[in-house]
Design brief:
single chain, about 240 residues, alpha+beta, D-amino Acid Aminotransferase, Chain A, domain 1, 2 domains, seven-stranded antiparallel sheet, five-stranded antiparallel sheet, 6 helices, 14 strands
């Protein structure tokens, strides 16, 4: 693990200064949390799996022409990433009703939505990441209308791509969460995808059995989280080091 003093430590990752200006090192922990960190555990190997899977998906998203912070994987647990000014808005994409939206709106888990639903949450654990409207984002200066337009456009393109990618390996993309940030370039500020894309922030169900292959296995005490993540990696063709139980 990088020995520098952490700049930031979240529930699943630690951020360190990078080797060059404008870069950071993102370290993936084995910590598992749910329900705004009210439930916690350490699951050996989870961080390694998320690192490799997120690398694979971020590179594929980059090939679509969607800029993101990923530069390279530098170890089993660490990535070199671009240093962004993170926009404090989480973008939640829902294709199927699951998770918090079900009790909130009285929906049955697994019911299809008439269209892809994009929701926004304020990125603030102390407030429970409350749902917000675009008007909140503009009023409080978290992002401009132009920035939010780019974010939503990129989000929908990512959803279309990931839906097809996962369906091709027999997995349904139920919902997922994205984060974005601002990157200072010679040509001005560019909006970029940040954070990670992995089974930690995606709901993934087996297309035939609807078996959960994501962090819901931890949330719901189903067990077998590492095995589910390993299966996602295997289907994606991602080679991951041997993880001892």
């Amino acid at each position: 693990m990088t020995q520098n003093t952490p700049l930031y430590e979240g529930k699943a990752k630690v951020i360190f200064e990078g080797p060059e200006d404008g870069t950071l090192i993102q370290h993936f922990k084995d910590d598992a949390t749910a329900f705004n960190a009210q439930k916690k555990d350490v699951i050996s190997g989870k961080g390694i799996l998320n690192n490799y899977i997120s690398e694979h998906i971020m590179m594929a998203v980059g090939e679509l022409g969607i800029p993101n912070h990923f530069i390279s994987r530098i170890s089993d647990r660490e990535q070199l990433i671009r240093k962004l000014e993170i926009i404090p808005v989480e973008v939640v994409v829902r294709n199927v009703a699951a998770g918090s939206i079900c009790p909130r709106l009285g929906l049955e888990e697994g019911s299809m939505l008439n269209n892809t639903l994009v929701e926004f949450c304020l990125k603030d654990d102390s407030l429970g990441d409350p749902i917000i409207a675009p008007e909140h984002i503009f009023t409080f200066g978290w992002a401009t209308p132009e920035e939010l337009e780019i974010i939503v456009e990129d989000t929908l393109r990512i959803n279309d791509f990931l839906t097809g990618l996962f369906l091709g390996i027999g997995v349904r993309l139920i919902d997922f969460k994205l984060e974005f940030g601002r990157y200072d370039t010679e040509d001005g500020i560019e909006i970029m995808l940040a954070d990670e894309i992995s089974p930690d922030n995606c709901r993934l169900w087996d297309a035939e059995t609807n078996e959960k292959m994501d962090k819901d296995r931890f949330r719901r005490d189903l067990g077998g989280l590492v095995e589910a993540y390993q299966e996602i990696a295997r289907r994606l063709g991602v080679k991951v080091p041997q993880i001892d139980p």
